[in-house]
From TrEMBL:
Gene3D superfamilies: Jelly Rolls (2.60.120.10). CDD domains: cupin_PMI_type_I_N_bac (cd07010). Residues 294-354 form the Mannose-6-phosphate isomerase cupin domain. One of its GO terms (molecular function) is isomerase activity. Keywords: Isomerase. It comes from Paenibacillus ginsengarvi. Coiled coil: none annotated. It comes from the Bacteria. This is Phosphohexomutase.
Amino acid sequence: MNDANKSLSQIPLRLIDDRVWRTYRGGLGLEAWRRQHDPRDSDYPELWVASTVQAVNAGREHAAAEGLSQVALPGSPDGTAVTLKELIESDPARFLGAEHARRYESSPALLVKVLDSCERLTIQVHPDPDFALEAFDSRFGKTEAWYVLGGRTIDGEPPYVLLGFKPHVTKELWRRLFEEQDIPAMLDALHKVEVREGDVFLIAGGLPHAIGSGCLLIEIQEPTDLTLRTERTTPRGVRLPDRACHQGIGFDRMLDCFHYEAACLTDTLFRTKIVPEVADHQDGGTETFLIQPKHTERFRMNRLQVTGQYEMAKQDEFAVAIVVAGSGTLLFASGEAALGTGDTLFLPAGLRHMTWRANDPREALVVVLCYPPK
């Protein structure tokens, strides 16, 4: 690692994140949240944050860098940027932490997204680690968690998600519904849950689910793009290639990816809906656990709400920061960084001590912090 990169491992790095094409439309809520001019929906409804993962989109293999985040190099007069992946690979221990690099080499072992949907996503499932290793030769599955930022009512329907099989669903029934492409019956097989700002859900590998229309949320997940879909046509009528549904493993194996653990709504919410807990309180702010190791070993997520000044000491690990609301300043040993709603930062392992300061005590600075496996 050269001296310039060494210094980069000790300061907050401002990210240039990539908007990613998906099989569903959205993005207006995302762009409005980031204060972009003329926000609108498109085929690019997701912002991949601090991503070293290439997006997997059947038919878009030409977009080789799709999904990869870049880092704006501080002090560069011409706006030079480098991919976060390249920067981490120059010295994984300094950017990710020594123990993390020993376990995962140059992989951050997580992927963070902000997404906004103007239509329901197709019913889907992601592999658990065992299935991912067997079917995709991947050490990571795709357990994920959602933190709801807000939403919008679309065609009279408030934001919602679909979660888990209802008690009547069996593997045989699910196969028949898939083969017949009985979409109304598939939708009726899953629990429908309205969501509100601040809700937290954990979606383990193997759990059938779909994000409904009108959802704006942060998603933290394992670092893969392995999504298996049972709807061969999207809600707006786009026919999907077979590979976009089964990711190359065939439809029979795709159906094996589901965990057929049918349950009532109460039990499903007990397994999936997380109650946040206060982690630390100071005069100037409060940090709250959203996802803890007791919920999953795959990642962690906290929310920081600052009305004055909040001191933070970080271990030898990295974090991904998303400014959810408000404005302020992040102070560190060699400088400071202005913060505004929608900003995204990579906080390297070498950055240990920092101070978060809100610009206006009447408008809290709210930051979501995403951490790798502990």
